[in-house]
Structure prediction request, 632 residues.
Amino acid sequence: MDAMTHKATTAAADPVTFYGTEVTSRLLLGTAQYPSPAILAEAIRASGTEIVTVSLRRESGAAKAGQSFWQLIRDLGVKVLPNTAGCRTVKEAVTTAEMARELFGTPWVKLEVIGEDDTLQPDVFGLVEAARILSRDGFQVFPYTTEDLVVAEKLVSAGCEVLMPWGAPIGSGRGLNNPYGLRSMRAHFPGIPLVVDAGVGLPSHAAAAMELGYDAVLLNTAVAKAGDPVRMARAFAAAIAAGREAVIADPMEVRDMAAPSTPVMGRALFGS
Amino acid sequence: MASTQTESTENTTPWQGANAMRVRVIGAGVAGLTCAHAFAARGAQVTVIERKSGSGQGCSWYAGGMLAPWCERESAEPIIAELGHESLAYWRAAVPDVPNEGSLVLAPPRDLPDLKRFSRRTEAFEWVDGARIGELEPDLDGRFDQGLFFPTEAHLEPRKALAALTQKLVEEYQVAFRFAADGFDEVDDQSGETEQADFVVDCRGLAARDALADLRGVKGEMLVLYSTEIALKRPVRLLHPRIPVYIVPRGDGHFMIGATSIENDERGRVTGRSMLELLGAAYALHPAFGEAEIVEIGADVRPAFPDNLPRLRRRGTTLYVNGLYRHGFLAAPALARRAAEVAFDGAYFPEVMDEDHRQW
Prediction:
């Protein structure tokens, strides 16, 4: 098999599965903060993203008044992962998830229970409780969590079949704050789809997450707030594909000494 | 009949004297009033129809009134800045009290990256340090170390400006106004009286969704504070990654604080969280706002197309001026001038008339 054929085969045969649903794109995009819905739509198309998150807590108003924006999202023809962004209590998150299921007709929910206003750090205690309630009620929960293994274990026992640890605080663009923790998590949960969610600022951060063996990357601000969101979306898609290809390609080991690719001693013999 | 009229707009036959163009403008917000002005200034006989009891009482009522094309350039397409420059000149000439004080953009120390980002995306500003900020706004002396000053921008008080424009239209241009009190029924009137107008200019904002299916609402909430402990000469924008807020001095100790931007079309309902955010930002700008009196809170819905850019659409003898989003005062006069040229001269403006003009 020549190199080109091999590459094509790999790309086609490399979907990731979330709760039984296969997707090819490993980039998940948030839909907030774009200059306009038109630019959001273009960014999604340019990136090949198949799953987008949508927040409901604030947009729903008193009578689900966010319909026109949600309809724009539905019209994009991608899978919608409603989120509970902005929720600070278990009850709020559960209510928002129930509304999301009704509005978008999906059991999927990205579960956020925010515990701290400065870092938007998840309240992991509330998160586990809400995940248990929602899983029991038939939801398929994508929990936004930290890289804490004990919390992750509890989320899995609560019924979560996907885990989404943060790279860094939401919107900070700092990249992977704790690569060691993320690597441990990957090693600890070899069979569970892991998605780095939040804190990713640059395509290189996303590539690094993929190189750690993560299954996908979810981001929003880095694309939405870029000077050219469409171009940045494409850059992230390329970086994520590169990182994924690298993992499959089995990277070389790091060494302390230089290892010249041609034998140094023989070099003069080939000169002039 | 309609085709004859349309042809006459496209040749050189002037709409003059007994042949004055009869124009009906629907909606007396900033779009409707500036359109009425643009048509009347070219000799049209204009009637403005408004379902409310006075002009400027829709979402124009809650506008910030910042005439800040360069600040808007940070997050909007270049066309907004371009329309904004034209509109800025218009307002200076058309209504009294348009202070030319520029605008100031500030960020608390932890949000300085946002200030850098803002500066990269626009122009026509100068970086200012703490001392210069203190010179510009003495009450902010010592509170911020860095900021951006846009000296060529201006602001106005939307309610006063639209009242002044209405008066000018009545007195100088004999524009007729028919408010709800006159018993106007929007739907019947449109169908029943269309033949009496050569052109209908539909400036109904979100209410025009019956004709413009891609229009959506983006909710904005604002409040007005009263304090004698602090004075500002110009609008101040306080950057924050999630909650950017502006404070516009309205004179006599009044300050307008705005505005949220939420993807829904719910009118009038102001939430606690939004007020917390707006008040929090005002308090961060100056603690005196913590002791200020809350004079007013309000919310309305901005009409927007999917690309958040304004559009001028022509269907026969009806012109739709809509989708002004956050840029009512900044874009309306420039659109109104174009609307009049479309009707009088058969002009075409791709930058606001092409369906996908974001590429323009």
